[in-house]
Records
---
Amino acid sequence: MFPEVLPEISDSDLEHFFQIMLSQYGMDFRGYATSSLKRRLGTVIKRYGLTGMAVLNQRLVTNPDYIDYFINEITVSTTELFRDPSAWIALRSQGLPLVQHRPQLRIWHVGASTGEEVLSMAILLKETGLYEKAEIFATDIDRRSLEQARRAVYPLRVYKGYEQNFIQVFPHLSLEKYAHVEVNQVFFDPSLLDRVRFLQHNIVTEGTFGEFEVILCRNLLIYFTPALQNQVVTRLVDSLTEGGLLMIGTKESLFWCESARRLSPVNEVERIYRKRSSP
Ligand SMILES: C[S@@+](CC[C@H](N)C(=O)[O-])C[C@H]1O[C@@H](n2cnc3c(N)ncnc32)[C@H](O)[C@@H]1O
């Protein structure tokens, strides 16, 4: 297979793109890793048969209705139910026991995408008897992904993979307890979302909204430059209660983040951390 040939995007076109997104839509993409951002912009240009980035920029200026589709196209929404099952096993056995005695469990999924991570958390909380004291916030920049997350309905082709992950975390249960297949779709039990609020929110440009016992920000930092990772992680650590948990993606690192000093590892391999008490 030959690598896909994508249109070239000059630095000045990219600069113009940043300005449009910032001034017209209040979205700041300057801290996204340039190579992957250019690749995704190139894919959009190619898909629409546009002659180049200048035309895409023009479309963004003149056609604000396009923005939700555009954000959906340039963000990477890849996700799974119980993605990296061993991380969820560690969260259950090592993470949650550290906070489960609290009167309330406020949980924030940053970059929740199409909702599978939230459903995983809801199932975990139901199975550990913690769901009733949870209040779950699920945020993402991508309005269209959040629409799917609210529906909790997925194409049948994902079922097998999701079931395999589920069985690793809950070997004695069947996914049928929480999801059923109808025609060519998978429907999750809507009661899993009773305590979930979905909100469009940009972690780069918007403040946080309270304190949380658990924050998941998985497979999002990887798209940011080290400087932006540092800024976002500081924001997340500030939003944790003392002893609260932060879980990032298993292929991500806090190497660039000064606020990692304010965390101690719960499980370094699975990237689960705990906020230290203030001295
Ligand atoms: C690869 S998905 C990760 C989904 C899920 N957390 C997981 O690990 O399976 C990354 C998500 O981050 C979202 N995202 C990208 N930039 C964002 C931002 N500035 N603020 C909030 N969400 C953002 C994307 O829309 C996408 O849904």
---
Amino acid sequence: MKAGHLLWALLLMHSLWSIPTDGAIRNYYLGIQDMQWNYAPKGRNVITNQTLNNDTVASSFLKSGKNRIGSSYKKTVYKEYSDGTYTEEIAKPAWLGFLGPLLQAEVGDVILIHLKNFASRPYTIHPHGVFYEKDSEGSLYPDGSSGYLKADDSVPPGGSHVYNWSIPESHAPTEADPACLTWIYHSHVDAPRDIATGLIGPLITCKRGTLDGNSPPQRKDVDHNFFLLFSVIDENLSWHLDDNIATYCSDPASVDKEDGAFQDSNRMHAINGFVFGNLPELSMCAQKHVAWHLFGMGNEIDVHTAFFHGQMLSIRGHHTDVANIFPATFVTAEMVPQKSGTWLISCEVNSHLRSGMQAFYKVDSCSMDPPVDQLTGKVRQYFIQAHEIQWDYGPIGYDGRTGKSLREPGR
Ligand SMILES: [Cu+2]
């Protein structure tokens, strides 16, 4: 080993182990890997139960053709392994889609991410919601750092880096916060393109005593823990766009990458990378405590209103049934489902709902007795009929501001 390399290694070891912790040291072995991803593995619109041949909207995103990629894309994602040999992959729930594995820690803990890049471009891992120093930020920008402080900024193909993150009291959930806060991690060499390519995953930081000692740790305070990314994933930004055109379009030469209709066909209105109800079932028991960790990423189109049909959510101490999600916002919602059945989660933004941003969640009774009906109020009846009417948006007939008639042509 050259003297310079030895110095780097020593400085790196110093930076890794010098943070004192009274909590656990949580090691995660993450490999960055290429994969093929299908946004609609069931091959149909599950919400309307239509085949693609009978559904012009769904097929405009999902059917491949002469100059259309269709439902499958090459992506690059984070995968978790059991140790530093990166040979045994740790399974994750199917509903997580292409998201990376769940990372979790308590206040006082240190998270060590052993990242290895098996893909063909430089990538990193950059977290939200935890403490890190310059050697563990994972973001490439001109911050004046150099030497070993720069090694985290871009991990080349075949390279690796250990990122050291911690959860000091300054980053802890407050008394008024839920037991675990919702965060994410993602690659940040070119963040918009890295994330569109698939490099994003969930992270939670919890109050002390929330996680049990199992591997992986389970939360003691809730019965179910779900993570949903609402994002119009823009495959036009993916590093693999040219690859995907070459692989999936039957006449790649006919593709015009600047064509608006082609670009629209690659904007996948997804929840965890699934569209049109293809998200594998999110199952839970009635009367149990459910934590929903919701987050958004993307562009100005990524204004999402996630409506959980049939149940009530609690967000920041308020009851609601819709969660507001914007790019890089992280929402922790709690639910105690009251009624069993299959229920819809849909983004209420019209064009998003129409373009497939919907999924099902299933509440089973799990032999839990329903709560005793304690309603003591009145029964209030309303008799409502639907009518067709003629509606006039300007009944006074003139512009109230200018006084000019609304009826004259050209006004
Ligand atoms: Cu939306």
---
Amino acid sequence: MEEVFGPEGLIAQAHPEYEYRPGQIEMARAVMRAFEEKRHLIVEAGTGTGKTLAYLVPAVAAALGGRGRVIVSTGTKNLQEQLMEKDIPFLQSILPKKFTATYMKGRNNYLCLNRLGRAQASPVLEGLEEVDYFEEVVDWSTESERGDRAELSNLPESLSFWRHIDARSESCLGQKCPDFDPCFITRMRNRAQESDIVVVNHHLFFADLSLRNSMYSRRSASHRGHCFGVLRLAGFELSDRRPRAGSWNDHYRRGGR
Ligand code: SF4
């Protein structure tokens, strides 16, 4: 940790205005120890401690050190975006070992190719002005890598037909879907499976954990090896708010054991 956070460390070399903060390195060491000892950790640290890097650096070290993929779960979209657009690219530029990261949003942020195809055959538009928007979405669907609604930044926030073509789970045909392979959700999951760090929100994290746990309990013993492998992903949650009774603030979790 000294090599990264120390006064002459990698961050200081990249940021001339970097200020060495003992609290930050103390937190980073505590997080690293928690990863090594496979135990929970709750951290409360004030504004200006540099908490994000203090958990991200050990998380990357743990993932690259063979401890499994690390899930970083946050409470707000702003923090997810800050992680993906600022903090993670910064670490990717300064850390000597390369690592990969994927951002998983809720399903209704992504386009469903199957529903889009069906919407082209049956009207879902509420006004003539939406015709151009719909055509723009159709064009974008053939070029987009991620199918993320946020890429359509020039379209209005409230596209009334989006709810008819998004990838929400209740409309998903799963593996029976003829568009399963090119599906943006399938591709996002494949990317996540290959990434060292996966950034999600709490809702997605716990919904997924709950689903996996119920699947796990229903599987026969012969299937448990596979589920066990999935459940061994590490979870890590952080919020800037003070912890409330019954909620986790800074939380490290390793499941499947
Ligand atoms: S697998 Fe589900 S989300 Fe993906 S294209 Fe098919 S129906 Fe849509």
---
Amino acid sequence: MIELGVSTAQVGGSNPPVSTIYKGEGMNEAIMRALGFGKDVEKVKAGFCPQCEKPACMEEFKDELSRKEYKIGGMCQACQDKFFE
Ligand SMILES: [Zn+2]
């Protein structure tokens, strides 16, 4: 009666890894808006870096710290490098 596992091998395929695009999940939206970053919130939620307005995704980050930073402010790796240098 157990028929699990039938479709798991098909997950992935040629589809882009949509789940790796951060859309502001976990971001402190209320605080961001209160601080006047409402526009940034919209950009981040759309999957874009608020600084350079390029699309950002989890794959481009070099380490966990950068991913953490991305989850806080939505900045892509390139902008983080500039910001923290
Ligand atoms: Zn950027």
